[in-house]
């Protein structure tokens, strides 16, 4: 099983169509990775699927960077 | 029209499908090959829909005016049929009264069932459509939403609101190949118009260039077209089906 970091990175690469090397921990989905608001919702949906968890809307809104996504998964999955 | 294989696999959800226009829409989509789920507020209504669809979908109890009922019904639909990729928001009520006499309850009931329900049901279906990167949302409005009608301020407000919702959502989800349109029926032959006194009926007919009331199947055919792959470039618009009584 690959690490949570790798799995999250893979999802971001797939969902946003970006290069793996651009998915840096501090990268913001919207500002650095070119996501629009629908993309960020879809990203959360993909994370929910991959990690078999439900992310409440209030929490989902806070997941705006790669680090935040990894932290959320580590804390909840 | 032969249904594509994709079309056959698609689940279409029609709210308020136990009678009138909704029933005809459910039948029309089933005939076009979709797996149709129709909702009704009672178990008897849901059973009747199930019998009509004869295995090509089924009936589910859902009260669109109640958030919990919508959530529960959506979970059932998701589990039994999968995510609906075609949504027809049809369920609606009237509580006609002139404004000076209209009760707050009459206003609220119409806004809740005809407009707030769009928020509940559409939101519940959008995730599946977004994921599929394909979807059709068709809101059944009314010519009254554009023309207005004395005694129907609540209904006109809800239907006009639904058309604004249609335009805004079309812009929001277009990038995911989800189209959002409205079908605005004029006067259609249903139990409701059947009950009108003859004088009022004649007066109504005099305002309709085609000189007759519409048939529920004529609404269903517009809906089936909007749901089809062929209507994929149509979004954010209202298709008027009213015999020419209003020409935008």
Low-confidence stretches of chain B: none
So what's the overall shape of chain B? globular
Query: How large is the count of helical segments of chain B?
Result: 10
Structural class of chain A: mainly alpha
How would you spell out the order of helices and strands of chain B? HEHEHEHEHEHHEHHHE
Rg of chain A, rounded, reads 11 Å
Distance between the termini of chain B: 29 Å
Number of strands of chain A: 0
Computed over alpha carbons, the radius of gyration of chain B is: 17 Å
Strand order of the largest sheet of chain B: 3-2-1-4-5-6-7
Keywords:
heterodimer; A: 77 residues; mainly alpha; 4 helices; 55% helix; B: 248 residues; alpha/beta; seven-stranded parallel beta sheet; 15% strand
Task: Compile the SSE list and pairings.
The complex is a heterodimer of chains A (77) and B (248).
Chain A: H1 4-16, H2 37-50, H3 57-60, H4 66-76
Helix pairs in contact in A: 1-2, 1-4
Chain B: H1 5-9, E1 11-14, H2 20-31, E2 35-40, H3 43-53, E3 57-61, H4 67-80, E4 86-89, H5 104-132, E5 135-140, H6 144-147, H7 153-173, E6 178-185, H8 191-194, H9 198-206, H10 216-227, E7 238-241
Parallel strand pairs in B: 1-2, 1-4, 2-3, 4-5, 5-6, 6-7
Helix pairs in contact in B: 2-10, 4-5, 5-7
